[in-house]
Amino acid sequence: MYPDEWITLLAALKDKREACVLLTVLEEKGSVPRDRGSKMVVTLSHNYLTIGGGNLEYQCIASAREMLSNPQARPEIQRFNLGASLGQCCGGMTSVLFEPLIQPQPQIAVFGAGHVGAALVAILSTLPCHVYWVDERPERLTAVPPGITACLLEDPTEQVERMPPESYFVVMTHHHPRDLALCEAILRRGDHRYFGVIGSMTKRQRFDYRLTGKGFSPAQLAGMRCPVGLPDVRGKLPAEIAVAIAGEIIATYCVPKPLA
Questions:
Q1: What's this model's pTM, rounded to 2 decimal places?
Q2: Rounded to an integer, what distance in angstroms lies between the CA atom of residue 155 and that of residue 108?
């Protein structure tokens, strides 16, 4: 292991825009697993390098992932006595600096490449998020903004399955039966952070009726935003609708998710 391997790791994570926390051992007293300056990098799904293993490292990984769930997390120092209460036998004391370096970025799937969909991804491309723009019509996915991932899929529900937990879904295809199929797939996953469907209250009532017939409860349907977008933005132009939806998404990801 090279002493500066953590620098290479951070550069790679920055290129992928993947959130992480850098852990650094700041001080050591008595017998400790690793020396001062030892580092570890923790993401939501992986950890790299080590600060000594054992229960100390387990607790540090858990603390780092708590930080990753909070967009307002700030650097902090935690101190650990490496005795029986921590499940360690070293008997010393150490302190660890936790530095959240890249905050988690929303993973957003936009279904539909019509006028509103195009206006929405244009706005989302300027925000700190990962956007997947899904449609089955290749001629509609020709002008893709920088940073947007175009997904040409005959069956758009495949993208629902590919998205990670806590994703954001915006359904606005040109075909109501396809919208309904997407709604069913998203609700069956049951792990979205945000789920909006373009349409009127009449469409909402129709979808509620059909989805209830498929076994979904009122509590599940309550998590579906339809009509989608901030209600105070009442314009009907594609750009106005897109602004209302983008504003609702921003309002959602700027609020820390409550810890379980």
A1: 0.70
A2: 18
